[in-house]
Specification:
elongated; 9 helices; mainly alpha; 6% strand; 204 residues; 3 strands; single chain
C-alpha cells in the first residue's frame, strides 16, 4: 500500500513539518502546475499503485463536506488522524476537492470517483483485477521463471538495466517468481525485495 498520509509521503519526518508546510506541499502538488519534487515524481511513477492515496484524499474531501464515509474511507481517515488532526485531514480534502487536475497521479484504469459517491472495501475488491494488471505492467516489476535461472544463481542476476533503473525511479520494486518446473520451495512465490531494492534505488 502506498502511504495514505499524502503530505508526509515525500520522505520527510511528519513531526518535523508544520501544518502550514504540509498543506502548502499538497496545494502545490494539486495545483495543476508541473511539480518535480521527489514526492511528485514518485507519485507519477507509481501511478498504478496509488489507489489508496486517491481514496484517502477522496475520503478527506467527503469528510470536509460532512458526508457519511464508507468502511474503507473511515479506516483511511482514522489512519491519517493518528498523525495529524481531523481538521487538517479535512483541509487536505478541500484542496483535493477543488484541485484542477490529479489524473497523472492516480490509476488510469479506475474511473474517477464523484464526491457524492463513497468508495468502499467492496469497490476496492471489485477493482483489484484492473489494479493488479496495471501494477504488474509497471517497469519496476520483474517476472522470473525459476526454470530459466541457472542453478545457484541469485534472482537479481536476471535483473535488466531497465528494471534496475526503474527501482530508483519508483523507489521500490517487485520480483514475481514463477516456475514451469518446480525447484525447491520457491515455485509460485511472490517475493518483495523491499530492503534490497530501497538500498539499490538510493545508490542509483
Amino acid at each position: 500500500m502506498s502511504d495514505s498520509t499524502p503530505p508526509a509521503a515525500d520522505g520527510t519526518d511528519e513531526l518535523s513539518t508544520t501544518r502550514e508546510e504540509r498543506v502548502a506541499r499538497l496545494r502545490n502538488l494539486l495545483s495543476g502546475a508541473r511539480s518535480d519534487t521527489r514526492w511528485a515524481q514518485r507519485l507519477r511513477a507509481n501511478r498504478s499503485s496509488n489507489i489508496l492515496i486517491e481514496t484517502a484524499l477522496h475520503a478527506a474531501a467527503r469528510l470536509s463536506e460532512g458526508l457519511v464515509l464508507s468502511d474503507l474511507e473511515q479506516q483511511l481517515v482514522d489512519q491519517m488522524a493518528r498523525i495529524v488532526s481531523v481538521e487538517e485531514v479535512a483541509e487536505y480534502g478541500k484542496l483535493f476537492k477543488d484541485a484542477p487536475g490529479t489524473a497523472e497521479f492516480f490509476p488510469a484504469g479506475v474511473e474517477r470517483i464523484p464526491l457524492e459517491r463513497s468508495y468502499s472495501l467492496a469497490d476496492y475488491a471489485a477493482d483489484q483485477e484492473v489494479l493488479v494488471r496495471d501494477a504488474l505492467a509497471q517497469p519496476n516489476v520483474n517476472t522470473i521463471d525459476l526454470s530459466s535461472l541457472p542453478e545457484g544463481e541469485p534472482l537479481d542476476s536476471l535483473d535488466s538495466e531497465e528494471f534496475i533503473a526503474a527501482m530508483g525511479e519508483h523507489g521500490s520494486a517487485l520480483t514475481l517468481v514463477t516456475a514451469s518446473v518446480r525447484r525447491g520451495d520457491h515455485a509460485g512465490d511472490l517475493h518483495l525485495e523491499a530492503a534490497q531494492v530501497h538500498e539499490r534505488g538510493r545508490v542509483r
